[in-house]
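To illustrate the input format used throughout this study, we show a single complete record. The first block contains the structure-token representation of the backbone; no residue identities are included at this stage. The design step must infer an amino acid for every position from geometry alone.
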């Protein structure tokens, strides 16, 4: 009986893992296509990068952060208030990445 229970738990765990992985990979946001043209930075009225924080050397150093994922930051653990603003960058249009050693939103 214990061998059956042990096999059942192992098989159930494996199936849950595979189902979770399938769901995770199915619903991933497609990344914007990379191109060699200039990156257009999401900026405020003064021309400064908006919702950006931190320095970087590569795109992989930057990640969306904050409760609403509104910041492009080199610190993934940054804490912000949980809110929504129409002013936040549209993540279907903008990517978070490294431009001129700063983490910024760009398209």
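Output of the design step:
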């Amino acid at each position: 009986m214990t061998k059956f229970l042990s096999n059942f738990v192992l098989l159930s765990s494996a199936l849950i893992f595979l189902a979770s992985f399938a769901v995770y990979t199915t619903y991933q946001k497609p990344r914007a296509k990379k191109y060699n043209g200039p990156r257009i930075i999401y900026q405020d009225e003064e021309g400064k990068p908006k919702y950006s924080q931190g320095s970087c050397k590569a795109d992989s150093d930057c990640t969306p952060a904050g409760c609403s994922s509104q910041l492009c930051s080199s610190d993934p653990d940054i804490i912000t208030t949980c809110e929504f603003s129409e002013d936040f960058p549209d993540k279907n249009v903008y990517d978070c990445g490294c431009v001129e050693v700063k983490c910024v939103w760009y398209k």
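Structural context for interpreting the output: Residues 2-26 form the longest helix (25 residues). The radius of gyration is 20 Å.
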